[in-house]
What does this fold into?
Amino acid sequence: MTFLFFASGKLCGRSHSLNLAVNRKYMNKATSHFKNASAKDWQDWRWQFKNRVTKIESLDKLLGKTGLDKDSFKSLTAIYPLAITPYYLSLIKSCNESDPVFMQSVPCLREISLSGKMPEDPLEEDTHMPVPKLIHRYSDRCLAIVTENCAVYCRHCNRKRFWSRPNPTSLKARFREMVRYIAASPQIREVIISGGDPLILDDTVLEKFLSSLKAIKHVDVIRIGSRIPVVMPMRITKELCRMLKRYRPLWFNTQFNHPVEITPEAARACNMLQEAGIPVSNQSVLLKDVNDSLETMKNLLNGLQKISVRPYYLFHCDAARGCAHFRTDPQSSIALMEEIWQQCSGLCLPQYVLDVPGSAGKIPLNVLSKTIKNDLKKHKHFFDKFQ
It folds into this structure.
């Protein structure tokens, strides 16, 4: 469900095509919590960002009792902060870990109790930064972390180590060093703009960086990685799309992890990007108790196809500190994907991969499937040589 504010300042829930029940508890609580908000405010991404829920007291007011111990919660969020937009919070139907949006956005004590010896930087990105916050793992492309901040702090994030670390470098200085390095590296043909979430930056700030990259002759393609269509879709405006269109070829990767996230507002945001000539692809993460069932994953992939968003990657959850409780068993995950491969159209099928450190990159896990190996042996007459 989603919510709209009427001019009176009161919230009104409405159903949509996914037939989600209206969360009247949230609606009633939000009426008083955001009592001065109007319909225009709700649709304003700056209002959404400014009014993100960042404290347990606000969660309790909006969702009712979450069952979270306040002292433990505050100790946890001192390490891994909380931030949820009012829009994304409105998608929560149950205030517990059976709810996929709750699981992805509300801090859980297992983030610290199960951390163990897991690395903060599982992909060793920090060792591949020739200049601050520019990751150069592959020869022909690099990734620019333009901000450490996000509209929503996703609890499964593999870069959550950055959330509570202040960055002393100005954005202007960061951009200057990145552009200087890329300009001096003719092998780089593609730049991925990431974070954090780059779309929390204003259009003018983002365009300065885009224009600097576009001016480098050997940069052929720009890619943006952002969860904004999922967690704050009102950020995708006509003005933003008009600006991004000037920097094509530009590709946009987002992250839908559950079918409840495919709302009319999210679909509208993706459609606006597509109508600007910007292809939208999806990079999901396989998350335990969130999307690791056949029905959920099928509905997610089919739902993405319906809004013309290409399922690109399905990542096995990284072994990042604070994410252990989201990791699935590899063998059962491969078995799940075997069923997906058999039951879904090719247009719906992402590559199920494990990202590993260094230049080895993303390893397809379907090669480990016994079913696929047996099928290849069964039909080996299709090959001139098969061992």
Observations:
- The chain has 16 helices and eleven strands.
- The longest helix spans residues 330-343.
- The mean pLDDT is 88.
